[in-house]
Amino acid sequence: MSGTDGAEHGGTTPGPRRRGRPRHSPQDAGPGARERILQAARDEFAERGYDKTSMRGIAKAAGVDAALVHHYFGTKDDVFAAAIEISFEPALVVPAVLGQGGTDGIGERLARYFIGVWENPATRAPLLAIVRSALTNETAAKVLRTFVLRRLLERVAAELDVPDPTFRAELAASHMVGIAILRYVVKTEPLASADPERIVAMVAPTLQRYLTEA
């Protein structure tokens, strides 16, 4: 890109520039650029994993200049964190699920909601990408831990009127994440092909005990 081009286009993008001056084309312009980058990031992380995903590859998949990805997100960690937040959006309503109808049946409601999110192909794909990346890369795992602790488990714990609510929320989360890894990532049998209703029925009492028993 020439100096003249940079002078012409450098002021068209709001906010501070993180690295250089992103070049703008008709594809780059418009309010949908950030969303396209995030969708491309989710797809790239899903297909390639954290280690093999690059900012340049995300930019190419999104149809934008690499500098625009840096402009919006800064680093690959920042893109990954943003992708996690969007992918876990369904999980952020868990506190509301927990609060429906008091503590009676809380284990079943949580198990049913969790399995439902993973059984839906539209929500399962990005979650698989995140879990696979976290299993193979410590940086990705750290980003995921931070998000889950601050945005999810602390909100769940706030709904529990029992001793050690955060510890209990972590136990419940570990149980459900373990099921997700074995059923959807590793695909071990017979769990991988078990009826979702059977899983809910067997898991619900354990989650109920974690979350409610003093």
Automatic annotation (TrEMBL):
<dbReference type="Pfam" id="PF00440">
    <property type="entry name" value="TetR_N"/>
</dbReference>
<dbReference type="InterPro" id="IPR050109">
    <property type="entry name" value="HTH-type_TetR-like_transc_reg"/>
</dbReference>
<dbReference type="Pfam" id="PF17920">
    <property type="entry name" value="TetR_C_16"/>
</dbReference>
<dbReference type="InterPro" id="IPR009057">
    <property type="entry name" value="Homeodomain-like_sf"/>
</dbReference>
<dbReference type="InterPro" id="IPR001647">
    <property type="entry name" value="HTH_TetR"/>
</dbReference>
<protein>
    <submittedName>
        <fullName>TetR family transcriptional regulator</fullName>
    </submittedName>
</protein>
<feature type="DNA-binding region" description="H-T-H motif">
    <location>
        <begin position="54"/>
        <end position="73"/>
    </location>
</feature>
<feature type="domain" description="HTH tetR-type">
    <location>
        <begin position="31"/>
        <end position="91"/>
    </location>
</feature>
<feature type="region of interest" description="Disordered">
    <location>
        <begin position="1"/>
        <end position="33"/>
    </location>
</feature>
<dbReference type="InterPro" id="IPR036271">
    <property type="entry name" value="Tet_transcr_reg_TetR-rel_C_sf"/>
</dbReference>
<keyword id="KW-0238">DNA-binding</keyword>
<dbReference type="InterPro" id="IPR041678">
    <property type="entry name" value="TetR_C_16"/>
</dbReference>
